[in-house]
Amino acid sequence: MHSFDPVNFRGQFAFFQHNPGWVYLDNAATMHKPNVVVDAMAMFYQRHNSNVHRGAHTLSQHATRAFEQARDDIAAFINASAREQIIFCSGATAALNQIAFGLMHTVLKAGDRVLITALEHHANIVPWQIHCSKYGVILDIVPLTADYKVDQQAFTELLALKPKVVSFSHISNVLGHIQPVTQMVSQAKAAGALTVIDGAQGIVHDKVDVQSLDPDFYVWSGHKLYGPTGIGVLYGKTAALELLTPLFGGGEMISEVNFSHSLFNILPFRLEAGTPDIAGAIGLAAACNWLQSINNEQMKSYKSMLLKQFFAGLNKIDGLDILSSPVHNAGIVALNVQGEHPADVAELLNQQTVAVRGGQHCAMPFFSLLGLAGAVRFSFAPYNTEADVATSLHALTQAVEILTA
Ligand SMILES: Cc1ncc(COP(=O)(O)O)c(C=O)c1O
Fold first, then answer.
1. CA of 405 to the centre of ligand 1 (A)
2. Cβ of residue 92 lying under 6 Å from some atom of ligand 1
3. 73-95 pLDDT tens trace
4. Can you give the pLDDT at residue 188?
5. What's the gap in Å between 218 CA and the centre of ligand 1?
6. CA of 93 to the centre of ligand 1 (A)
7. For the Aminotransferase class V domain, which residue ranges apply (predicted)?
8. Rounded to a whole number, what is the largest CA-CA distance in the chain?
9. 311 CA to middle of ligand 1, Å?
10. Is the beta carbon of 265 within 6 A of some atom in ligand 1?
11. Residue ranges per structural domain of the chain
12. Quick check: is 362 catalytic?
């Protein structure tokens, strides 16, 4: 394992050589891709491109081996107990839709309950809403505390209603707060529920060991973890995956088709209809293998140091409402300039080549609860620098001065 060297780390991203003037603090939306990922995908397309599983020819067999090796690598990355527990899909949104749809036909019947929290991304709200209303399933929402954490007391009380499924994010994409997921999973399991973790932000911050965390499902998007867009992972325990009705039918996911009925294939193929994103899977595995070669603890403490510096700088700027807490924070800070629209602040930062996101961050119900139009979100990654922190603080100071002049 290599020790984490911030300069060497950043040097592995061609993006920064092509965009030297930019301070990129929109990592919660998507991360940049290290050269190893881009190279792995280019290599596949240039040398090995073929469809998988179905070709009789040698090239197809090579492509199949590379694709299935990617599954093995990703299973190892999250310590899944079996390779068929890794279902490739287009991302966290696709995975959550597959789970919500897939359980309605098997586990969830009219009158049953599903529990989510008030801090969820739309991807962990809307799929449940669509299917719960259609099948008469009740969707309960865990409220938040005054400091925007999931209210654990209310969570315990709502578990007493015996939800069949409990689904929550590992880390809030708006605030960066790390949820007490280990405790929440064990409480939900004790209440008899299936557990779903939206790990879109969680997998980025720390190593995830699905056997020790022990949820039934853990989902994530490749592009937020140094991988390509268009690929993601639906991890499930084998028994939990067997409960899912496939959302998509087509090639690959069947073992026999005739006009009266079809027989489905075994896992993982049963949930992977059609030609998969072969290069995407190979790129994502390259990202996971590369990450595993770097000291994670050092990388995390470097990011915490940047976050600490950023919070210290924010405290010197008057007129801010900071929504995020520095405690148990994965490197995301949401804030507002008092009385100003977040889009205006984000645009003033953009004009100073600081890339952040301003808006509701796919969490409209959260902002409705707060009565806010949204927030400006600064999200950090280990390739950011102390100079990025200083530049963004300076740009924010300028924006406040312009807006409040
Ligand atoms: C917590 C969380 N869940 C789900 C998603 C959806 O991810 P994707 O758009 O890659 O499917 C995101 C993306 O921002 C997210 O942050």
1. 37
2. yes
3. 999 999 999 999 999 999 999 99
4. 98
5. 13
6. 6
7. 23-389
8. 72
9. 25
10. no
11. 6-30+295-404, 38-292
12. yes
CATH architecture of 6-30+295-404: Alpha-Beta Complex (3.90)
pLDDT in tens, 279-326: 999 999 999 999 999 999 999 999 999 999 999 999 999 999 999 999
> Which CATH code, of 3.30.230.20, 3.40.50.300, 3.40.640.10, 3.90.230.10, is assigned to 38-292?
3.40.640.10
pLDDT in tens, 121-163: 999 999 999 999 999 999 999 999 999 999 999 999 999 999 9
Q: What is the pLDDT of residue 55?
A: 74
- Ligand 1 and 123: CB distance under 6 A: yes
Long-range CB pairs of 40-44 (<8 Å, 24+ gap) are 40/282, 40/283, 40/285, 40/286, 41/228, 41/279, 41/280, 41/282, 41/283, 41/286, 44/278, 44/279, 44/282
Side chain identity at residue 347, one-letter code: E
Specify whether the backbone of 214 is left (phi greater than 0), alpha (psi in -120 to 50) or beta. Answer: left
Q: Is the CB of residue 400 below 6 angstroms from any atom belonging to ligand 1?
A: no
Q: Is the peptide bond prior to 228 cis by the omega test (within 30 degrees of 0)?
A: no
Which residue of the set 89, 132, 288, 362 is catalytic?
362
